[in-house]
């Protein structure tokens, strides 16, 4: 009871301070709000919406169940999750935050995952997409497309390690051996696809409408969190709270022989990954390797902004948030470690300016260039896609209310 009262007092004081800060710093709050809004409607909304809609339809048509049966022999021994986890993992890497959480919650609601399996799965399927790593961070902030190779490898290898570690989390309460033996064949996969489609007997038009409305509702929530934490991060800086928190980080950075100037970007990155990565790229006192390690940790930790989005999505189910938060810390440590280990064998060997140009792995160079061009093109057309999609959402919503 005392603990609950203490939590109430803490939350009340925090919200009051936030409200007072908004009044005290109106110009700074407005600028931070616009920055978060631009990020959402230029990049986040148009890049995530197609993945969300298509994924909802794949689940409804039973394709995800089909994929799950086929991937069961791979996902179960390695990560101790059902084969449908392979679909969530792939979509999470392709579309980025917080897609892994949304798809995991959706499959949990469908009954295709147990609570423990869902908590394992969500811990390693939320990751930054290649578009953000190569386009925004490596090119937009560091002006170095080759750095994206290191950041991406460190990020995704760290995620795999988290998945392997989290397989030991929780105790199994159901016996999967009989199920596994029966579902290794294509015929079983096709049967599962058909049975899932029959179970979800919604017409195609209804299924598509539900997919659009559900996806846009989720993205509206994501946009709210992005704007909120963009403002909070700015206010923390002006209230000198970021500087106070950075003093403790300076001790850790000094012990690791890192410049203490990285403390402010690190704290900012704990709240919002975009601002933290941008500030890290501007620290002149740090080497590129040190910046890469700090940025890798920031991307893997995801920031409290993304974690709040995930917590909001998971709150709709019985999936607990604590394992996800614990996994983010582990992911950050692994990503920083991989950035350090891969620096000499990959970046220095292939991308150092001292090396001849024919040492460049052409495929990776073309990938970063293509993603960079697509990222900037998305910024141009993103607002139009967002406005058009919102117009469709309002139309569908109006039609359903009128029909009801």
UniProtKB/TrEMBL annotation:
Q: Give the species this sequence originates from.
A: Neobacillus ginsengisoli
Q: Which UniProt keywords apply?
A: Membrane, Transmembrane, Transmembrane helix
Provide the taxonomic classification: Bacteria, Bacillati, Bacillota, Bacilli, Bacillales
Q: Name one Pfam family in it.
A: Gate
TM regions (residue ranges): 48-71, 83-101, 121-143, 150-169, 216-237, 249-271, 291-313, 325-343, 381-399
NCBIfam families reported in the protein's UniProt record: spore_ylbJ
Which residues does the UniProt record annotate as the domain Nucleoside transporter/FeoB GTPase Gate?
A: 44-140, 219-315
What protein is this chain from? Sporulation integral membrane protein YlbJ
